Amino acid sequence: MTADPTYRGIALDAATALALLEWQAEMGVDEPMLDAPVDRFDLAARLKPVAPIQPLQMEPAAQAPALLPGLPDDTAARIAEAEALAAAADSLDSLAAAQEAFDGIELKKGARNFCFADGNPKARVLILGEAPGDEEDRQGRPFVGRAGQFLDLMFGAIGLSRTATDAEKALYIVNVLSWRPPGNRDPDADEISVSMPFVRRHVELAGPDLIVLMGNTPCQAALGRRGILRLRGQWTQAFGRPALPMTHPAYLLRNPPAKREAWADLLSLADRLESLSV
Ligand code: URA
User: Is ligand 1 within 6 A of the CB of residue 133?
Assistant: First the structure.
């Protein structure tokens, strides 16, 4: 008797294969994109050598957010305080404690819970999202609402999960903001600028191989660029690591046809992970 084949640790028995097929159809993968099937088990060999990653052009705002016109007078001082606290943290636990205690961000006053991270900090893939919503604010964990459930489905389709203990198959999830903006409004420039020292240190301490920039706010914060529908799928560098902008799961839930491109981005992520492993 032969064992069921596996793909990235998922046993491809008939029921799993059918579930994956149904999920792909739900994601909009309903027609072949290539003339011939791709042997994904042979990808690592085909991908060598890996094409160099082209950094996107950085805009000055990303490098010096404190100098943006219109920010409050004390923004630079609060950024400096955040930088000092973040630099002094030598572990994720101490970073979380320092960031939670930091009073330089007004949002803290209106939020119910601090949302530091979720998943496995040893994961090879770090997802950087925007900010907690209502459910995240209740639970104190990022991406646990409807968009988060969809995010779990998306990444589960390439064998990655926030609950995985194996770093190869795990996800680590962080937001640009750790406190909920009232009414789920977009984070403003001051909030992003003051949060970024903590985010940079967070990425440094977690040390992922790859970063997913989930939507416009993380692209603005890390690359100084917005326009996720143009940026998505283009590998770049953020925090000194390969980074892939992707459309946010909340956007995909509102715009199902965009799931097709998101699926292509997930496959690109799986390919890059595979090529970095060999
Ligand atoms: N959207 C995000 O970007 N992050 C969350 O934690 C929840 C929704």
Answer: yes
Show me where the domains of the chain are located: 75-277
Task: Read off the pTM.
Answer: 0.79
Signed CA dihedral, 221, 141, 127, 204: sign only: positive
- Per residue in 17-45, pLDDT (tens digit) is 777 777 776 665 655 554 455 555 555 55
Structure tokens at 74: 């004390």
Architecture of domain 75-277: 3-Layer(aba) Sandwich (3.40)
Q: How far apart are CA 128 and CA 250, in angstroms?
A: 14
Q: Give the Å distance between the CA of 36 and the centre of ligand 1.
A: 37
Nearest to 159 by CA among 256, 3, 23: 23
Q: Which of 107, 127, 136 to mutate to test the pocket of ligand 1 (most atoms within 8 A of CB)?
A: 136
